[in-house]
From TrEMBL:
<feature type="transmembrane region" description="Helical">
    <location>
        <begin position="61"/>
        <end position="82"/>
    </location>
</feature>
<dbReference type="InterPro" id="IPR036259">
    <property type="entry name" value="MFS_trans_sf"/>
</dbReference>
<keyword id="KW-1003">Cell membrane</keyword>
<dbReference type="GO" id="GO:0005886">
    <property type="term" value="C:plasma membrane"/>
</dbReference>
<dbReference type="InterPro" id="IPR050375">
    <property type="entry name" value="MFS_TsgA-like"/>
</dbReference>
<keyword id="KW-1133">Transmembrane helix</keyword>
<feature type="transmembrane region" description="Helical">
    <location>
        <begin position="412"/>
        <end position="429"/>
    </location>
</feature>
<feature type="transmembrane region" description="Helical">
    <location>
        <begin position="152"/>
        <end position="174"/>
    </location>
</feature>
<feature type="transmembrane region" description="Helical">
    <location>
        <begin position="89"/>
        <end position="106"/>
    </location>
</feature>
<dbReference type="InterPro" id="IPR005275">
    <property type="entry name" value="Lfuc_symporter_FucP"/>
</dbReference>
<keyword id="KW-0812">Transmembrane</keyword>
<feature type="transmembrane region" description="Helical">
    <location>
        <begin position="112"/>
        <end position="131"/>
    </location>
</feature>
<feature type="transmembrane region" description="Helical">
    <location>
        <begin position="295"/>
        <end position="312"/>
    </location>
</feature>
<feature type="transmembrane region" description="Helical">
    <location>
        <begin position="348"/>
        <end position="370"/>
    </location>
</feature>
<feature type="transmembrane region" description="Helical">
    <location>
        <begin position="324"/>
        <end position="342"/>
    </location>
</feature>
<feature type="transmembrane region" description="Helical">
    <location>
        <begin position="265"/>
        <end position="283"/>
    </location>
</feature>
<dbReference type="InterPro" id="IPR011701">
    <property type="entry name" value="MFS"/>
</dbReference>
Length: 442
C-alpha cells in the first residue's frame, strides 16, 4: 500500500489532518487493547508469583515496577525515533519489542527465577513505551484538531476489551486446573512444592502464545499500510526541528502541561494500585474463594471501566470536559474511601466500582496536556513526557504494598489511591477555573 500515490487527507502545518483516514485510524486503535492485555496479565502474574516465589506484598509490586519502569526509561528514546523518523517506524519498533518480550516468557518459565520474569516484563514494557508514545499522540493527530480529544477517547475505549481478554486468558489458561494456589502449596514438602511451582510457571506461557500470533499480524498490517505523517512542519525561522533540549526546556516551563504530566503520574499509579490488589483483596475477604473465581472481579472491573468511558463520552459532548472530570474524581474518591473502611465483601465491590470513574481520566488528561503545547513542533517530546509519567504505576503500588505490609491490612492500603484521586481532583478543579476565565475573556 505504500506505493499508493493518492491519499484522502491533507496534512496541515501543525501536524493535524483535514480528515481522519479511517483504515489507518482503525489499525492504530486496534493496537490500544494489546497493551491493555499485557497490563492486565500482570495482575494475574502478581497473584502467581506471590505464592511461587514466596513474596511479600511489597515485593510483588516490583512486577509493576519493572513494567512501568520500562515505560519511563524508553519514552524519550521513543520520541527521538519519532522525531527523526515517523510514527510508523516507532509503532513497528514497539511491536517488535513486544514480540521479543512475549517470546522471553518461554526461557523464563524454564529458568523459574523471579528476575528472569521481570526481565521479560521489562522488555514488553519497552515495546509498549514505543507504542503508547506513538499511538496515543498519533491518534490525536489523525484528523482535525478540534476532535483530537474525541479521537483518543474512542481509541482508548478499546483498551478495556484488551484488559478483559488478558484476565480471561489468565483465568482459563494460567489459573486453569488450580483452585487456590496458596492453599494447594501449604503442607507440601520441598520436592512437591518445586514440582507444583514448575507446573504453575509453565502455565504462564499459554496466553503469550496467542498474543504473539496477534502481534505478528498487526506488525505485517502496519508494515504494508500507507500511514499519514502526522507531525508539525519545522519552524520556519530555523527550518529545522528543535533539539531535544529545546523541547524539554519549553515543556518544563509550560506549567499547565507539567500539571497534566503530574496528574497522569498519579492516575496511572492509582489505577495500577487498585487493579493489582483487587484479586488479592477478594482472596483475603471471601472465605474459600479460588484464584480462578477471584479473577471474575477483575473481568467485571474492566466491563465497568468500559461503561464509565461510554458515559464520560456522552457527558463530555453535553457538558464541559473539566466539569465532567470533576464529578468523576469526586465520586471515585468517595468509593475508594468506602473500600478501605467497610469491613465486608462490599469493599471488593467498591474496588470494582472505582473502575467506572477511572474510565475517561487517562485519555482526557493526555489530550488536555498536549493541547497546552502551542508550539506543535514540541508535540512528540510532550507525548513522551506523558508516557514517562506512567512510572506512577511503578511507584504508587510499592507504597500501597508497603502500607499493606506495615499495617497488616490490605484493605486499609486502598487509602493510597484515594489520596491520589483527591490530587487529580485538584488538577481538574484548577483547569476548570482557568477554562471559565478564558471563556469570560472571549
Amino acid at each position: 500500500m505504500d506505493n499508493l500515490k493518492k491519499q484522502s487527507w491533507v496534512q496541515y502545518d501543525d501536524g493535524y489532518l483535514s480528515k481522519t483516514p479511517v483504515w489507518q485510524y482503525i489499525l492504530v486503535s486496534l493496537i490500544f487493547p494489546m497493551w491493555g492485555m499485557a497490563a492486565s496479565l500482570n495482575d494475574i502474574l502478581i497473584t502467581q508469583f506471590k505464592t511461587v516465589f514466596t513474596l511479600s506484598d511489597t515485593a510483588t509490586a516490583f512486577v509493576q515496577s519493572a513494567f512501568y519502569g520500562g515505560y519511563f526509561l524508553i519514552a524519550l528514546p521513543a520520541s527521538y525515533i519519532i522525531r527523526k523518523n515517523t510514527y510508523k517506524t516507532a509503532i513497528m519498533t514497539g511491536l517488535t519489542f513486544f514480540i521479543i518480550g512475549c517470546a522471553l516468557f518461554f526461557p523464563a518459565s524454564h529458568m523459574a527465577t523471579y528476575g528472569m520474569f521481570l526481565a521479560a516484563i521489562f522488555v514488553i514494557a519497552i515495546g509498549l513505551s514505543f507504542l503508547e508514545t506513538s499511538c496515543d499522540t498519533y491518534s490525536t493527530m489523525m484528523g482535525p484538531r478540534e476532535f483530537a480529544n474525541r479521537r483518543i477517547n474512542i481509541s482508548q475505549t478499546l483498551i478495556p476489551f484488551g484488559d478483559a481478554m488478558g484476565i480471561i486468558l489468565g483465568k482459563y489458561l494460567i489459573f486453569s486446573g488450580h483452585s487456590n494456589l496458596q492453599n494447594e502449596s501449604a503442607g507440601l514438602n520441598a520436592a512437591q512444592k518445586m514440582a507444583l511451582n514448575k507446573e504453575v510457571l509453565a502455565l504462564t506461557l499459554r496466553p503469550y502464545k496467542y498474543i504473539l500470533f496477534v502481534l505478528l499480524i498487526l506488525l505485517v498490517l502496519v508494515a504494508i499500510t500507507k500511514m499519514p505523517y502526522g507531525k508539525a512542519k519545522a519552524d520556519a525561522k530555523t527550518a529545522n526541528q528543535p533539539s531535544m533540549g529545546e523541547s524539554l526546556n519549553y515543556l518544563f516551563h509550560n506549567w499547565r502541561f507539567m500539571k497534566a504530566v503530574g496528574a497522569q503520574f498519579l492516575y496511572v499509579g492509582i489505577q495500577t494500585c487498585v487493579w493489582s490488589f483487587t484479586i488479592r483483596l477478594a482472596l483475603r475477604i471471601v472465605p474459600g474463594i479460588s484464584d480462578h473465581a477471584a479473577t471474575n472481579y477483575m473481568i467485571i472491573s474492566y466491563m465497568v471501566w468500559f461503561v464509565g468511558k461510554l458515559f464520560a463520552n456522552w457527558f463530555m459532548n453535553r457538558y464541559s470536559i473539566t466539569k465532567t472530570m470533576i464529578w468523576y474524581c469526586v465520586l471515585g474518591t468517595i468509593v475508594l474511601l468506602l473500600t478501605c473502611s467497610i469491613h465486608s465483601p462490599l469493599a471488593i465491590w467498591g474496588a470494582v466500582a472505582t473502575s467506572f470513574f477511572f474510565g475517561p481520566v487517562y485519555p482526557t488528561v493526555y489530550a488536555h496536556g498536549l493541547d497546552q503545547i502551542e508550539e506543535k513542533q514540541h508535540t512528540e517530546t510532550g507525548g513522551a513526557l506523558m508516557v514517562m509519567s506512567l512510572v506512577g504505576g511503578a511507584a504508587l503500588p510499592v507504597i500501597m504494598g508497603r502500607v499493606s505490609d506495615l499495617t497488616g491490612s490490605m484493605q486499609f492500603s486502598f487509602i493510597v489511591p484515594a489520596i491520589g484521586f483527591v490530587l487529580i481532583l485538584w488538577f481538574f478543579l484548577s483547569e476548570h477555573k482557568i477554562a471559565k476565565k478564558e471563556a469570560q475573556k472571549a
